[in-house]
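Lecture 7 notes: from sequence to structure.

We start with a single chain of 211 residues. Read the sequence below before looking at the structure.
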Amino acid sequence: MTSINRQQFLKWGGLLGLGAWLPAVASAQDRQPAPGGVRRIITGIDGNGRSLIAKDTAAPHVYRREGVVITELWSTDAAPSSNRGEADPTDSPLRLMPPKNGSVFRILTFLPQTAPEAASPATAAHADDSGISAALAKGKASGRAAGSHVTDTTDYVVMLSGEIYALVDSGEVLMKPGDVLVQRGTSHSWVNRSQQPASLAFVLIDAQPLS
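Now the structure, written as tokens:
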């Protein structure tokens, strides 16, 4: 994986609204989480059983991969899930896939395809436990585009800002703000052909493999 220099990150970080954490990330490794620009509000209950706002801060775990900024928001590890306790499930290493019978909620921001540091994830090895390499390997067999990958999940995807192309083996579709996509465990990839970053919200839910 390549590192991003401060000038490049200042340019794209301004467009992403990440100014609050530029100093920390510009000198950090891409696997090191840093405070992000996404406000995350979490509810809970007090000792009397009354609801309250338990957390209201910037999402604390943000990762950078080639051309993508990943903001982890929440995850569950069972169905039905438990709403008890105060532990933050994002306080763990980055994992692409949700836990067994669980889910993951995150925001991905894709830099323009022509931007510095916007190489496809398929062009670099991911020698870690994130599960990205395994997903890329499954997508390579049938994927028509670099970065094609497969996860054993049902994904609910909401386009937040910018625009992006969702590519599958036999076609593609342009997504704009307000569009939604249900990704059902098939080979796919994402390409930002515009001149601005594109942000999408993802909910990945553990699912049975298609084959």
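The first helix runs from residue 6 to 16. Keep this in mind for problem set 3.
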